[in-house]
Design a protein that fits this description.
4% helix; mainly beta; flat
């Protein structure tokens, strides 16, 4: 069939447009009339193609138009109340979902909300209003944060069957033991951090992940750790149990270690009334031999009487003893060798049991333990055997217990050869505990009942660097003149808050800090401070020192002294001949009424001077008093009877500078704040600043303080 040329051209050009039909050249309705989809939801920030940040926008509705390629979605700090399933289900590429600090309730979180998020690794739903945890979270999860909600129950698949899960945060919720299923972490063998603090748990949950390294259980109602609760946590490094209700009965010898006791009574007793024979235990080993590492040769011995077994792994069924007549008159010791304790927590380094109700140190502590916190308990006595296993202990904190004169027997801590720091403050100790570890570096003993310090009390700790005996009852007459001489490495000595009337003698020359505030010092003798050429800080505040009580040459030996606190004494003027290296001088709360021109000639490095609450008046400070103090930047004269005029030296490294009281306790120089220019008409006119007692205003050329503010500021002319 042949087509004519006109017909062929007509077919190629298409049908002509007609009324009622769309023009082919016009865009189709519904496609090109709408703007192209936005790459980022409105008001959100998308720094990358896979990141959507909608943080802090007060959103009440889940944003739409989120790209399917999003891998990281942040919706924290909004007001979302629910998560629509249809919006979440299409974001199958999500790896991080941050919903922190919203108003999401369990009703607003559908059970199937996370089913399609098969690649999700991090989910943060803390600080919301969840009453129960999601029933299902993706298998790919690594970090789950549900803290600070109102969660009372979690489900087996909330955290179970998550082989990559590493961290779970459930603190600050309302979880009780009934809300934790026994298989809560089944199939999640990689969890290293679990936080269950600040909940309502009454005992340590069983079936915890065996891979745990950090377990937070503080601020609960825990009164007991059941036997075997920590039997599988061989990788645990940090255990936090402070602020609970633990008592001695809630912890036993198997809580931290696996112990088999096979020793017999040391003495034979012939009277069965005094020592009846023990029942013969029938032992079912099951899988215990593997956990306890008992050699096969001992299996038969374990079933030989008389054997006392105390272990979670070796369960015993006591049988009634035979008639008493059948027992021999003498109970001879068994030849069975004793088995030593084996630590279950082979990697435990930090254990916090403070703020509980313990009356003794727990038994069976592991050898790897480095920090043991037992403060704020009811411990009256420390048994050496309880600490013998923890030979690697470095920090032992026993503050605020009930340790009395016999609370630490001689040598009780001797097995702790690596002990670095010992905290014993807030007890009832009357003397320094004897026979402390020789390698001890810090001994903290304030707020006890110590009245004396003998010549040998500190002799066994030659490496001690920090000694704190503050707020005891020490008197000078009962502090031996050689008490501190053996401490050749001592750098910090705190004797504040005692009843000393003179500086102790024999202080080691290695001291950097000496605190003697709040005593009854009435004299400073140069001989007692001789040799302290490394001392950098000396506090003598709140004593009864007068100028006449400070002997001539007292400061000559203290050539390295940088901070001297003589506040709240009875000084009538600035002590003369202060150390040249002094940078900070506290003289507040004395009776100083005049500062002479030569008061600070010996302290050219002075940076801060505190003269508040003395008896100074406006002209009490001589104009030349601060000449040569090129580094002076803080002068505090508040709280005196009158506002005090302070004249700065005319030649200063910074031109000009103003001292101002930016804080209630001190007056500071503000960078960039200029003082009023001096009057050039008067020769010798120096720069002066009128320090005030009230708050300063920014860049005000002169400020006044005091009972009656004065305006305008008056500049005192040099006489």
């Amino acid at each position: 069939m042949r087509l004519s040329l006109p017909l062929l051209l007509l077919l190629l050009s298409g049908p002509p447009p007609t009324s009622g039909m769309e023009d082919a050249a016009f865009p189709h309705l519904g496609e090109s009339l709408q703007p192209p989809p936005r790459a980022c939801p409105l008001r959100c920030f998308c720094p990358r193609a896979d990141t959507v940040d909608c943080n802090g926008l007060d959103l009440q509705v889940f944003p739409d138009n989120i790209t399917r390629a999003a891998q990281h979605l942040s919706l924290q700090n909004n007001q979302l109340q629910e998560l629509p399933y249809n919006e979440l289900s299409r974001l199958s590429s999500l790896r991080t979902l941050n919903l922190h600090n919203n108003l999401i309730s369990s009703e607003g979180l559908p059970d199937e909300a996370f089913e399609s998020l098969t690649q999700l690794q991090h989910i943060y739903v803390a600080h919301n209003k969840l009453s129960v945890a999601p029933q299902f979270l993706p298998r790919s999860l690594r970090v789950a944060d549900l803290a600070a909600n109102q969660v009372t129950e979690i489900f087996p698949l909330t955290f179970g069957e998550k082989p990559a899960l590493r961290s779970v945060y459930l603190h600050n919720n309302r979880l009780s033991n009934a809300g934790l299923p026994p298989d809560a972490f089944h199939g999640s063998e990689a969890v290293a951090t679990l936080s269950l603090s600040s909940n309502r748990l009454s005992y340590l949950p069983p079936s915890l992940p065996p891979s745990l390294e950090r377990l937070h259980l503080q601020n609960n109602l825990i009164s007991k750790v059941p036997r075997g609760a920590l039997s599988r946590q061989t990788h645990l490094r940090e255990l936090y149990l402070q602020h609970n209700q633990l008592t001695d009965s809630g912890l036993d010898a198997t809580t931290f270690s696996f112990i088999i006791q096979t020793s017999s009574p040391p003495h034979a007793i012939s009277d069965p009334e005094l020592c009846p024979a023990p029942p013969r235990p029938t032992i079912r080993l099951e899988s215990a031999l593997t956990s306890a590492r008992v050699p096969p040769a001992h299996v038969s011995q374990l079933n030989q009487p008389p054997v006392g077994v105390s272990s979670f792994y070796l369960r015993t069924t006591p049988q009634p003893p035979p008639p008493r007549a059948t027992w021999p008159p003498l109970w001879a010791p068994s030849p069975t060798p004793a088995l030593s304790p084996a630590s279950k927590l082979q990697h435990l380094e930090y254990l916090d049991l403070s703020h509980n109700q313990l009356a003794s140190v727990p038994a069976g502590l592991p050898r790897t333990l480095a920090v043991l916190h037992l403060g704020r308990n009811r411990i009256r006595w420390v048994e050496a055997a309880r600490l013998r296993g923890a030979r690697g202990l470095r920090y032992l904190l026993l503050q605020h217990n009930q340790l009395g004169a016999t609370g630490l027997p001689a040598g009780a801590l001797r097995p702790l050869r690596r002990l670095h720091t010992l905290h014993l403050y807030g007890n009832r100790l009357e003397r320094v505990p004897p026979a402390l570890p020789r390698r001890l570096r810090a001994l903290v003993l304030p707020h006890n009942h110590m009245t004396a310090l003998g010549a040998r009390d500190l002799a066994g700790m030659p490496g001690l660097a920090e000694l704190n005996l503050a707020y005891n009852r020490l008197v000078s007459a009962r502090v031996h003149r050689r008490a501190f001489r053996p401490l050749r490495a001592l750098r910090s000595l705190d004797l504040a808050g005692n009843q000393l009337t003179r500086v102790p003698g024999g202080l080691p020359g290695s001291l950097h800090t000496l605190r003697l505030q709040r005593n009854q010092l009435r004299t400073l003798e140069p001989e007692l401070l001789a040799g302290l050429d490394q001392l950098r800080e000396l506090s003598l505040a709140h004593n009864r020192l007068r100028i006449g009580d400070i002997g001539p040459g007292t400061w000559h030996e203290l050539q390295a002294l940088q901070v001297l606190d003589l506040s709240h004494n009875e000084l009538s003027f600035v002590p003369p001949d202060l150390p040249e290296a002094l940078e900070e001088l506290h003289l507040q709360g004395n009776r100083i009424s005049h500062v002479g021109a030569e008061a600070f000639l010996s302290t050219p490095r002075l940076r801060a001077l505190f003269l508040r609450a003395n008896r100074l008046h406006m002209t009490s400070i001589e104009p030349e008093a601060f000449l040569g103090l090129l580094h002076l930047s803080v002068v505090d004269t508040a709280g005196n009877p009158e506002q005090v005029l302070v004249r700065l030296p005319p030649a200063a490294p910074r031109q000009p500078r103003v001292l101002r009281a930016g804080l209630p306790e001190l007056c500071r120089r503000e960078a960039g704040t200029r003082a009023p220019p001096p009057h050039t008409g008067r020769p010798g006119r120096g720069r002066s600043v009128q320090l005030a007692h009230q708050a300063h205003r920014q860049r005000q050329p002169c400020r006044t303080h005091g009972h009656t503010p004065r305006s305008p500021c008056r500049w005192r002319q040099q006489q």
